[in-house]
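User: For documentation purposes, I need each entry recorded in a consistent format: the amino acid sequence on its own, followed directly by the corresponding structure tokens. There are two entries in this batch. Please keep commentary to a minimum and don't merge the entries.

Assistant: Recorded as requested. Entry 1:
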Amino acid sequence: MGANNGKPSGSEGKGSSSISSDVSSSTDHTPTQAQKNVATSEDSDLSMRTLSTPSPALSCPPARPGCQNGRGSSTSSSSVTGETVALVHAPPPPRLTHPLIRLAARPQREQARVERLPDACLVRVFSFLRTDQLCRCARVCRRWYNVAWDPRLWRAIRLAGAGLHADRALRVLTRRLCQDTPNVCLLLETVAVSGCRRLTDRGLYTLAQCCPELRRLEVAGCHNISNEAVFDVVSLCPNLEHLDVSGCSKVTCISLTREASIQLSPLHGKQISIRYLDMTDCFALEDEGLHTIAAHCTRLTHLYLRRCARLTDEGLRYLVIYCSSLRELSVSDCRCISDFGLREIAKLEARLRYLSIAHCGRVTDVGIRYVARYCGKLRYLNARGCEGITDHGVEYLAKHCARLKSLDIGKCPLVSDSGLECLALNCFNLKRLSLKSCESITGRGLQIVAANCFDLQMLNVQDCDVSVEALRFVKRHCRRCVIEHSNPAFC
């Protein structure tokens, strides 16, 4: 009966469904079950590579035994580590996309609308799905399989979850995407597997080998990633521009592999195309590592080094020497950065637009004067927690950076109404201002700001001694402003 009714073979069912099982897998409960799951995935991968036209594969929850199709032919199910495993069924009856979805109670017109949607509309709908959801849709029916693997939907892979088998998911996905062009995927440009603790160097190496056109890679919070994997990616993916390794505590440097350096022509040098680099919470990063990064990534425009506590002023000097195009820089919570480091940063001059030095306790008015004097096009400054900044520093900043749009001087107890007055009379384009825990700020300073900065959109005065009348004055003059306060009498 299966042959007469066009029932797909078992190997085809495995090929079209293994990807979804691997991508949407959860944490294995026992070691024995984990081994079974890996074996199933590898068998499915091998069978899938011989397919030219996929067969319909449908998912059935393992908790419902005895599931049968509409023609009375029984189906077998298997439960591996609590995952949903695709089962091979006879072709679905007309107007049904899934044997467990009962559309009989719905109006006939609604059923017809779903079936008559053109492929272009389905591609548009599928474009809003995550990678694991897209793989599950590929298991519904033959048509959805073909639509789900449309090349336009696979320019990006986004996976998340601490229990996800990221290495296996990347291996299966890249193998499927390389089906038409063996051993290389020219479509994939973005991969985001943030928070996947099971991602290892092996998974990144597979990705680097198969996806030479990769432009964006995000592996934030993947603690098992090391320098070797990052070296492989930047060496085998020459077009990589965006790299996020925040929270990868084992990453201490970014450089080309020795083999890649030897093969490069003298004209190309040893340069990497990265423009955006986020190394937040890379605690082991030191000045020497930053020196190597700066020497190889000379095209950097955005660099974030938050909470890299081992960095000093010497590391910032290397940045200025090699990365003269920096527009955004964050060294917040780098406690060893001082006024000497800001003197080096000031050498970026008008190119610098964004600077965060939050909680750099060694920074004083001297460092602020350096930045204000030479970086006249600065738009954003976060100096929260820099207790050495006074009204003199704010005044100098306001007079030399008149285009400032966002300023955070919270927890700067030496800043008072005098500094705010100078700020309001020079920075008319100010949109965001944070004065949280500024003990010397009163309602008078806020009123001066509100009377001159009409475009103010956010004001933080939490833990400040300001009256309700002053807050109401701000609300009347800056109607679009969101006020964050701690005064229970103001609403």
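Entry 2:
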Amino acid sequence: MQKQKTNSTTALLDAIQMYFDALYYCDIKLLNQVFHKSSSLFDVDQGKIFVEPIDSFSKDVEGRLSPADAKQKPEAEILMIDWLSSHCTTVKIRIRAHKNVFVDHLAFVNGENGWQIVSKIWHLEKEIN
């Protein structure tokens, strides 16, 4: 059982790194690989819930100048991994994209396509000038 957990943890860490790379390079292929095709993203702005399907988010990311192209140093970290089971986990991360620093809660499931994000709740933590 321990070896299975270790392999699962390694695969999850690889998926988290894929998420970091997808946003750093604005790589839609990686983004669509790490997000489940039915996933959505959520935020609250001025008391209103904002929901964005992954297809819309992918188009937004595709149209951005990537932090890599802007010569920004990658800044991303895992803050917490909460294992619900060997197939479900919630991951809290912090990531910088240009002047914005976000904190995300990513719900991952380990299914037929490996670890994928099924939902993302995000918050703009701060802006750096």
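Summary note for entry 2:
Strands lie at 35-45, 48-53, 76-83, 88-97, 100-111, 114-127.
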